[in-house]
Amino acid sequence: MLNLLHISDLHFGKPFLPEVGEALLGKIEKLSPELLVVSGDLTQRAKAQEFRAARAYLDLMPSIPQVVVPGNHDIPLYRIFERLFQPYELYRRYISEQRDTVLHQNKAVIVGLDSTNPYFAITNGRIHRKQLAFCAKAFTEAPAEAVRIVVAHHHFAPAPDYKGGEVMPKAKRALDLFTQLKVDLILAGHLHRAYVGNSLDVYPGEDREHGIIIAQCGTSTSRRGVAREQEKNSFNWIEILADSIRIFHYMYFKDYRNFYPVAKYEFARPSQRSYLAERFLNES
Predict the structure, then answer these.
(1) Which of 145, 202, 219, 227 is the most exposed place for a label (fewest CB within 10 A)?
(2) Where is the Calcineurin-like phosphoesterase domain (predicted)?
(3) CA-CA distance, 221 to 17, in Å (whole number)?
(4) pLDDT tens digit sequence for 203-214
C-alpha cells in the first residue's frame, strides 16, 4: 500500500556527521521508498549556511514526495530578535513556505504539524487548537479506508527510559482528538533515540479500543544521540499494508559504514472508522 522512510534530527552544523549522511543517502536509494518523512531539527542553530546545507541534502534524495516539519533547533534560540519577530524566515526561505501540511499518497493521508513554539515552549513544543482543527478537516475528508498519519517534531508520549521524558503541553488533548479521528500512526523525533509503542501504553484516554502506534526516530545523521542511542544514528522504515503496519528500526554501524535493521514491529490496523471531531471543526 505504501512504503515510507522516516528520518529525523539531521542537525546540519557542527554535530552533522558527513560519513553517516552519505551512508543514509545510499540506503535510501537502495530501499526506494515512496515517501520520505523528515520530523524536524534539520539544523543545529538555525543559521543560513546550515539551512543551505540541509536544503542541498534534501535535494539529493530521490524524486519522491517529502513531508518535512520544523524542529525547535530550526528556529533561532540565541538571536532573540529573530526568534521573537521572524522565527521561521530561514525555514521558509530554504525548506518550505508551509509548516502545517496535508499530503495524499497511495490511500494514505499524512498531516505534518509544526510543533515548535518560539515564545513559551521552546524545548517541548506545542500543538494549538487551530492545528487540531486542521487535522480534523484533513482526516474527516479522507476516504474511510485511508491510513491516517500525523508527523510532528516533538513527542506526544514519554520515552520508556524516562530520560528527558516531559511531553508537549496539552499532549493528551491532541491524543484524544487523534484517537477520535482514528489516526493510525504518529511519527516524531526530538529525543535523539528511537522507540516504538502504542498510545494506550502511556495514556488510555476514553477509547481503549483504538490505540495509536507511535514511532519515534533517533538522530539520523548527527553525533547527538542519547541514552541507548548515545553516539548512534537511526531511522525507521515503515511498510503500511491493508491490514497491518510494519516498522523496521535501522541503526548505523561504524565498522560497516552502513545502516542495518536491528528490530521489527508489526501492528494490526483497526478495521472501522468513526469521526467525532465536529467541535474542533466548528472552532477552526
Answers:
(1) 145
(2) 3-193
(3) 6
(4) 887 777 789 999
